[in-house]
Design a protein that fits this description.
- The strands form 2 sheets. The chain has a 7-stranded mixed β-sheet, with helices on both faces. Strands 7-9-8-11-12 form a 5-stranded mixed β-sheet, with helices on both faces.
- It is of the alpha/beta class.
- The longest helix is centred in the C-terminal third of the chain and has 16 residues.
- The protein folds into 2 domains: about 160 residues, Rossmann fold (3-Layer(aba) Sandwich); about 130 residues, Rossmann fold (3-Layer(aba) Sandwich).
- It is built from 12 helices and 12 strands.
- β8, α8 and β9 form a beta-alpha-beta unit.
- α3 packs parallel to α5, α8 crosses α12 and α9 crosses α10.
Length: about 325
């Protein structure tokens, strides 16, 4: 199943889940406000603005100011959700995120919209593939990349109750709901999506259902692939990664982000220092060109076939 088909084909837009959850929270808690950079439409906050017109602040195309306003609101007792395209929220405003929010430990919720390569045709200036690498350096900033609509709503609810800075990484690409019975959202804990004893696939965000499809293809070849949904990039579930290194022969990481410094970098750092096993990283190697989302995913191996091929490479290294 394509990650990029419209929601009408049975897939869900996580941005719809985010605004539905935010509006419900705001109905019960008047401390919740939204701050945007002329991005009411792309943040899907039109309904929020109509319901709570005095609780949405639009600073215009001034992202650094936007983050500063969010910090000020938090300092005044509000719970601001600062929403903008991920590429601008994290790139243009990184110093303000660092100094005004994380260093001060203010209760601001940063929402990176259309992250990854969702703006594919707009090119490298609009790709947001460096955000994991930048933000996971801030040890008090919780970084979450939900895998589907259900997890998005749960992450928004958790962020509203958590005292401290949070970064929610959302995409505008429709994705299927994960088929995991009795799901419970736990920040900092990997979700076991599929069991397997040969290789572990660790994925996040829009790539988790692709990891499941890869595991199914590998199962047909007699290879048992464990799939972990690592929705929380920071703090990382180190216990789950180390268990995978002990219990399976190799690890594959998958992310709609740069493999340098992101989820793949974090897993490689951890295993190299504690449980050396072959690690194959699937994602983007650096700047990537302009192109459709589907072309970019296929070109860089973000597909069931690409992930399965990475698993084969990792297992071949494990035998060497």
């Amino acid at each position: 199943m394509s990650a990029h088909a419209p929601a009408a084909q049975g897939l869900s837009d996580c941005r719809e889940a985010w605004v539905k959850a935010l509006e419900a929270l705001a109905q019960d808690d008047d401390r919740i406000v939204a701050v945007v950079n002329d991005s009411v439409g792309s943040s899907k906050l039109g309904g929020f603005q109509k319901k709570f017109p005095d609780r949405l602040i639009n600073v215009g195309i001034a992202e650094q100011c936007m983050v500063g306003v969010g910090a000020g609101l938090a300092n005044g007792g509000r719970i601001p959700f600062v929403s903008a395209a991920g590429c601008f929220l994290t790139g243009r405003s990184l110093e303000q995120v660092k100094a005004d929010i994380v260093y001060a430990n203010f209760n601001v919720k940063l929402v990176g919209q259309s992250s990854g390569v969702a703006y594919g045709e707009l090119g490298p200036t609009h790709h947001s593939i460096e955000d994991f690498a930048w933000l996971r350096l801030f040890n008090t900033l919780t970084v979450i990349a939900p895998s589907d609509a259900w997890e998005t709503a749960e992450a928004v609810k958790w962020a509203a109750t958590h005292e401290g800075p949070v970064y929610l990484r959302l995409s505008r690409m429709a994705v299927p709901e994960l088929d995991v019975p009795n799901r419970v959202f736990r920040v900092g804990q990997a979700e076991l999506v599929r069991k397997g004893g040969d290789v572990t696939i660790v994925a996040c965000g829009t790539t988790v259902h692709l990891a499941v499809a890869a595991a199914e293809a590998l199962q047909a070849e007699g290879i048992g692939a464990r799939v972990l949904n690592m929705a929380t990039i920071n703090p990382l579930d180190e216990a789950a990664i180390l268990a995978a290194a002990d219990e399976t022969r190799a690890i594959v990481t998958v992310e709609e982000a740069s493999i340098r410094g992101g989820l793949g970098g974090a897993v490689a750092e951890l295993t190299a220092a504690n449980r050396p096993v072959p690690v194959e990283r699937v994602g983007f190697p650096g700047f990537v060109p302009t192109g459709s989302v589907e072309w970019l995913f296929n070109e860089f191996g973000l597909s069931a076939a690409g992930i399965a091929a990475a698993a084969h490479r990792a297992l071949k290294r494990a035998k060497a």
